[in-house]
From TrEMBL:
The keyword Acetylation does not apply. Residues 2-115 form the CobE/GbiG C-terminal domain. This is Cobalt-precorrin 5A hydrolase. It holds the Pfam family CbiG_C. SUPFAM superfamilies: CobE/GbiG C-terminal domain-like. Keywords: Hydrolase.
Length: 120
């Protein structure tokens, strides 16, 4: 399973999330989107457009998860160096690995990382 994980500011729009996904993965197929539960409302239009499930992650799914990239803001607010990377890894399950590190939308309000489950 290929999962696009997202992080974003409260001001992030569906267009910003789509831009972050395009930057990270282009038009390649994905199986699901994942993000902190409080950011899913802005991601729902993208999930609907793509026809994939949107996985709402509780805070504890992200806290302390090791990520290759680090943002002081993400660490302070969510307890993970990269919310997008942590969300992608958490949703893809045990043994998942990142295929793409976080990419930042042009307006800098949203990020996206891609992970693959170990079941492929």
């Amino acid at each position: 399973m290929i999962v696009a994980g997202f992080g974003g500011r409260a001001a992030a729009t569906p267009a910003a999330y789509a831009d972050a996904l395009d930057s990270a993965w282009g038009t390649q197929a994905i199986d699901a989107l994942a993000a902190p539960a409080d950011r899913c409302a802005a991601l729902a239009p993208l999930a609907e457009t793509l026809g994939v499930p949107l996985l709402a992650l509780p805070p504890e799914a992200l806290v302390g998860r090791a990520t290759p990239t680090h943002s002081a803001t993400s660490l302070a607010w969510r307890g993970a160096g990269s919310v997008a990377e942590a969300a992608a890894l958490a949703a893809a399950g045990p043994g998942a690995r990142l295929l793409r590190l976080r990419h930042i939308a042009a307006d800098r309000t949203a990020t996206c990382a891609i992970a693959r489950s170990s079941e492929i």
